């Protein structure tokens, strides 16, 4: 599969809350997620966080998905049914190699998530 197809499948799996399938698209060793207010150094921790957010997820809409070699860029609307957060626009940069996602870097307004979690943000060091 092409990197863009792998990322599209990953996003579809997260949207459908198929976390085991999404996990299979991430490298087992050396995975890294970096966001504006959290960092995960393994896929299990990142997916556990995603699983926790599934309760408030109303929709995940892909507005744009483009690729430049192993780099895939997505613009997403993460719609929630949790009023304090509302809808969050995400820009996400994926690095893909050997048919697996190695790095996910997300850019979004972290203040709404930080306020919801009361400053208790997950982190892996």
UniProtKB/TrEMBL annotation:
Record protein name field: Nuclear transport factor 2 family protein
């Amino acid at each position: 599969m092409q990197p863009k197809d792998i990322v599209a499948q990953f996003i579809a799996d997260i949207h459908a809350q198929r976390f085991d399938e999404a996990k299979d698209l991430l490298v087992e060793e050396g995975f890294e997620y970096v966001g504006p207010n959290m960092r995960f150094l393994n896929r299990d921790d990142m997916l556990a966080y995603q699983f926790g957010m599934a309760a408030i997820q109303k929709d995940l809409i892909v507005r744009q998905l483009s690729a430049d070699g192993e780099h895939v860029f997505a613009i997403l609307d993460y719609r929630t049914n949790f009023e304090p957060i509302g809808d969050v626009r995400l820009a996400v940069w994926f690095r893909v190699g050997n048919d697996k996602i190695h790095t996910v870097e997300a850019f979004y307004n972290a203040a709404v998530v930080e306020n919801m979690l009361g400053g208790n943000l997950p982190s892996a060091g």
